[in-house]
Amino acid sequence: MAGERMRPPGWAEISAVCTAVAHRRQGLAARLVLAAAAEIQDRGERAFLHVTAEDATAVRLDESLGFRVRRKTRS
Question: What is the pTM of this model?
């Protein structure tokens, strides 16, 4: 699953990207993120994500899809 949450002017956050454990390592999360990003772009907005730095798998996925770390925050 994937959705959208925050929408500051000109931007939209891709949020809650999750894949059931039994269905991981099939590229589903990447497909979800790319589909959500395409919809956001079609509306003339830019997509962004929040990810916990400790979640190395999510960070690798996001970076492989062209997203980059812009700011690190503390928990």
Answer: 0.85
Has residue 74 got a pLDDT over 70?
A: no
Q: Is residue 17 part of a domain?
A: yes
Q: Are strands 3-4 and 46-49 parallel, antiparallel or unpaired?
A: unpaired
Confirm whether 30 is domain-assigned: yes
- Residues 14, 40 contacting (CB under 8 angstroms): yes
Phi, psi of 3 (to 5 degrees): -150, -165
Residue range of the domain that includes 21: 3-64
**Residue 72: what pLDDT?**
75
Mean pLDDT score, 1-29: 94
For residue 41, tell me if it sits in a domain: yes
